[in-house]
Specification:
The protein has 118 residues and is mainly α. 63% of the residues lie in helices and 0% in strands. It is built from 4 helices and no strands. One of its GO terms (molecular function) is NADH dehydrogenase (ubiquinone) activity.
């Protein structure tokens, strides 16, 4: 056998053996049924879909997404910025986002202590 055949044979034999061992050794019972059920946002997928959704959770998720995407898009531009217009534009954009965040905070959308307000 050549030197290329040994690693190729190992790579073809080892994954099925490991998969078969894991499948045989895995303990499956009816108690594990809850672990394998789909889970999304705390809702039971087998119940009705017409349940009230927390508007506070939605608003906080939107605020998080806005700031997360803003960081992902703006940080590489600022790090590689060579002109002053890019830096000034980024600062203006950040100021607009901070003003929006302060407005959300003053409005009470980020306050989770009072759960009655929607």
């Amino acid at each position: 056998m050549s030197m290329m055949m040994i690693p190729m044979m190992i790579s073809l034999i080892l994954p099925p053996v490991v998969f078969a061992l894991a499948f045989c050794l895995a303990a499956r019972s009816s108690a594990d049924r809850e672990k394998t059920s789909p889970f999304e946002c705390g809702f039971d997928p087998h119940k009705t879909a017409r349940q009230p959704f927390s508007l506070r959770f939605f608003l906080l998720a939107v605020v998080f997404l806005v700031f997360d995407i803003e960081i992902v898009l703006l940080l590489p531009i600022v790090m590689e910025a060579t002109s002053k217009t890019v830096v000034y534009g980024s600062i203006i954009f950040l100021l607009i986002l901070v003003i929006g965040l302060l407005h959300e905070w003053r409005e009470g959308s980020l306050d989770w202590t009072s759960s009655t307000k929607q």
